[in-house]
Amino acid sequence: MLPFDHARPLSRRAFLATTSFGAAGVLLSCATPGLTDPYASSNVRLTVRPSPPTLPGPLGLRRLGLGGARDGSIYVPASYSPASPAPMVLLLHGAGGAAESFITRRIPEADATGQIVLAVDSRSSTWDGVAFAYFDADIAFLDAVLQDTFVRYAVDPTRLAVAGFSDGATMALALGLANGDLLPRVVAWSPGFLIDPHRVGKPSVFITHGINDPVLPIDSTSRVIVPQLRGTGYTVEYREFVGVHEVPNDLLHETMGWMAASGGSAARSG
Hints:
The chain is built from eight helices and eight strands; from the N terminus they run αβββααβααβαββαβα. It is of the alpha/beta class. 47% of the residues are buried.
C-alpha cells in the first residue's frame, strides 16, 4: 500500500482552466459569499436516490462495466448484508488519475468500517466542471453509476459521502454543495478552489491540505475555502499537515472513518 496519493501532472488545458477559473472562483466566493458561480450550471444535480436493492450485488472488487475504457470500480466488503444498509463513499480521482488505482488504498479502510467504496472515472482526463467550465457528461455518468449501485446494494442514506483528491476534491465540493440532500458528508483532500453552484442541503465537510503543497498552494486554496464555507453556515473539519500534494495514511484513516461513522450530521434542506 502506498503511503500517499499523488496527483499526476495536469494537461496544459486542465492546468490553465484550473488556475484561471480556479482563482476566479475562489475570489468570487470570497467577495460575495453564497453567490452562484456563473459557469456552475444547474445540471450538477444528481437525480437518483438510495432504495431497497432489486438486483444481486456481488461482494469484493469489480469493474463496473458501464463506461468502456474509462469506467470505474466498486469494492463491497465481506461484512456487507442487504439486511443492514451500509455506509458508502463515492470517490473522485485527481487530474490524469483513474478509479482502478485510486480505490486500492481505500480497500483496507472499507474492510475495517464496512464501507462500500465506489470509484468512478471522469469522462475526460479530469472532471468537466473543474477543467472545462461546465458540468455535463460526468454528471450523467455519475447518475448512471449511482443508479446501478443503488439497485444492487442497500446503502444507508445518512452515511453516504463523496470524497476526492486534487481536481477530484474540487469536484467533490461542488457535488456536495449542490446535492447535500443526497450526500450529507463531503471529504476534500487538497482541493483547488470552490465552485459555487446552487446549494441544496447542508452537508458536513472535511478538508485536508499539505502546508508545502507545490501543486495547489494552501494559502490560495484551502485557507480560502474553509473560512468561506464556515462563514456560510457549513460545519467543516479541517486538517493541515506537514507535507505536499498527498493524502497521508493517518488522514486517510481519519477521513474514511469519519465518513462511515453513524450519528453524524444528516443532510438538511435549505
